[in-house]
Design goal:
The complex is a heterodimer of chains A (354) and B (243). Chain A is an alpha/beta fold and 354 residues long. Chain A is built from 16 helices and four strands. The chains are: A alpha/beta (354), B alpha/beta (243).
């Protein structure tokens, strides 16, 4: 069996290459761990300077995890903010209040602004209503209860895009290693040597897909299990569905990697495909809101395999969708793989016409 | 079709882009002979060889091997090809390389083992089979490439500069083996070279220059024809005549 011989050779070659093995199995875990640590870091408590604030307001602000520093008679607000390393400054004058924000980090500034506005307007209302009894009641309970369709109040940003990251790393590393695998075969002349034997082009493509596919499958299982068990990523749906989605994504990455390698004449040229082919996929994978993009830009998402995989993965891992509910995504991914595989057969014609 | 013609090349022309690499090449190669193609690098020898193996297709004309028009997958079973550059899997051992290529041909297991042992013995690599190819010297790689070319016991051997980088003693033993393969097993062997003393060992020589065959014949005939004593001189004379 020529295909079996090819698979055996690919696995043998990779098993001799410890660096590549590490890249395939350890690097994704390392990067995922790093990202989870970075994104799950505790939020820094913002520091707010307050001038003329009454007791209640200061109290409420402190309850909302804001570090409050009280000031009297501040002449230059901007200078005070800079000198005392404040994130914002609230000045209250009779009916009017002004908040000045440092705004060096828009996320911090926005959330501080929102909290302060909320607290200030609530206090204002209570003052208007007047009576002491009502004040206590109102301040004891929140006026609004929050329910969540997906996740909970504990949900972090990382939880919503971690499924996408799992898919991305599977895609990226498989793309790179399979592409460079076939490229090496071309640059060292062994592909030509291979094509001087009676092997069929289809057998080469199949051998490559299965050989690297086996490695990729192991990698996928490791990444998924690691993400769920060690990094505690949210998994509402079935782990088998997650592995299936990634396995199909792997097939797309493999066939695309092998295909693009025929348009590269060196490893460096293969690396050049990363900014062109891989990076745009991140933008359209759902980490950034696609609905918010210009209409013409949204069209691009339809051509990105990762967009469908990310949608399916997020659906299963975060929203708990079943296989049946995400199957249209899988069909599209399979169609991508089929197209790439057929193109591969044609690309090999460059080396032997049969 | 003449039975004894192992290879027939008819009016073959090939160009890459605007550069004409081979123009109107015609020759027949008879079974059980060694044919040498001599010429400087860039003369078109490798392109000609690649077309015989079926990896390139002539723009015009046709090539028949063992009676079948090339390219033909079935015929590849009968061709042992050795490329000019050593195309080997350096992460694998010599034995693993031989095993892999043996598996691509229709050989049963016992036959595979026998052929591997024979091919390794022939090129003197038996003791180094378990070493990784990345640890091989240039000459050892060349020898392994030759072993790969004969692994499936093909009827036709097409060797593109087989003895480059091999020491004289081993070169002699390889040539002796090629002669034995020809005499005892009736194999047809095509060799490209630019070493004239190797050309002397061929039954027939074709001198290739700028994409044309400028002279063909046995070494003796050629020297006779140009009235000189060495093939080097033949080559120079033939070249001048063309210009």
């Amino acid at each position: 069996m020529r295909i079996a011989a090819l698979i055996k050779r690919i696995l043998l070659q990779i098993s001799r290459d410890k660096r590549t093995l590490a890249l395939l199995f350890i690097a994704p875990l390392f990067v995922l761990t790093l990202m989870s640590l970075v994104f799950n870091g505790n939020a820094v408590e913002p520091v707010l300077g307050v001038e003329n604030g009454n007791k209640q307001i200061v109290e409420k602000l402190k309850e909302a995890d804001i570090v409050v520093k009280e000031y009297n008679k501040v002449s230059n607000v901007n200078e005070t903010i800079l000198d005392h390393h404040l994130d914002g400054f609230l000045q209250v004058e009779d009916d009017k209040a002004t908040i000045t924000l440092l705004n060096n980090d828009p996320t911090v500034a926005k959330s501080l602004e929102m909290k302060v506005k909320q607290i200030y307007s609530k206090e204002k209302q209570i003052q208007l209503l007047g009576t002491n009894g009502m004040r206590n009641e109102l301040s004891l309970q929140d006026s609004m209860k929050t329910d969540y369709v997906y996740g909970s109040s504990e949900t972090e940003l990382f939880d919503t895009f971690s499924p996408i990251l799992v898919g991305f790393f599977v895609f990226f590393f498989v793309f790179l290693i399979s592409g460079i695998g076939l490229l090496n075969e071309r640059t060292t002349g062994t592909l030509e040597r291979l094509l001087a034997t009676p092997i069929k082009r289809g057998e080469i493509v199949t051998g490559y897909l299965i050989g690297y596919g086996l490695l990729a499958l192991i990698q996928t299982v490791i990444i998924v299990l690691f993400a769920i068990n060690v990094l505690d990523m949210v998994l509402v749906g079935s782990v088998w569905t997650v592995i299936l989605i990634n396995a199909i994504l792997t097939l797309v990455a493999l066939s695309l990697g092998i295909l693009l390698s025929s348009f590269a004449s060196s490893e460096f040229q293969m690396i050049q495909f990363i900014p062109v082919i891989i990076v745009p996929q991140i933008f359209f994978s759902g980490i950034f809101s696609i609905e918010g993009m210009a209409d013409w830009l949204q069209v691009f998402a339809n051509f990105m395999p990762l967009y469908y995989a990310a949608d399916a993965l997020k659906g299963v891992m975060y929203e708990g969708l079943s296989l049946a509910e995400i199957r249209s995504n899988l069909y599209i991914l399979l169609a991508f793989a089929a197209v790439f595989i057929i193109l591969n057969l044609f690309a090999l014609k460059k080396y032997r016409k049969l | 079709m003449n039975e004894t013609n192992t290879i027939q090349v008819k009016e073959v022309t090939k160009s890459f882009g605007k550069k004409v690499v081979l123009k109107d090449i015609n020759f027949d190669i008879k079974q059980g002979r060694i044919y040498g193609f001599i010429g400087p690098s860039g003369s078109g020898k490798t392109t000609l060889v690649k077309m015989m193996v079926g990896m390139d297709i002539p723009d015009k004309g046709s090539i028949y091997l063992l009676g079948e028009k090339m390219p033909n997958l079935e015929i590849l079973q009968q061709i042992g090809y050795m490329a000019q550059s050593d195309a080997l899997y350096t992460a694998l051992t010599g034995k693993e390389n031989l095993m892999f290529f043996a598996s691509l041909f229709k050989l049963d297991n016992a036959e595979k083992q026998k052929r591997i042992a024979y091919a390794a013995e022939l090129v003197g690599l038996t003791d180094d089979l378990d070493k990784k190819v990345s640890a091989y010297s240039g000459g050892m790689k060349r020898r392994l490439s030759l072993a790969l070319a004969i692994i499936q016991n093909p009827q036709v051997l097409i060797l593109d500069e087989p003895t480059v980088g091999i020491d004289p003693e081993l070169r002699l033993s390889i040539w002796n083996e090629l002669l034995r393969l020809k005499n005892e097993e009736g194999k047809t062997i095509i060799v490209t070279t630019h070493v004239m003393d190797e050309a002397e060992k061929c039954d027939y020589i074709s001198m290739v220059r700028d994409g044309s065959i400028i002279a063909t014949g046995t070494p003796f005939q050629l020297k006779e024809q140009y009235g000189v004593h060495s093939l080097d001189a033949v080559f120079l004379h033939a070249g001048r005549k063309v210009q």
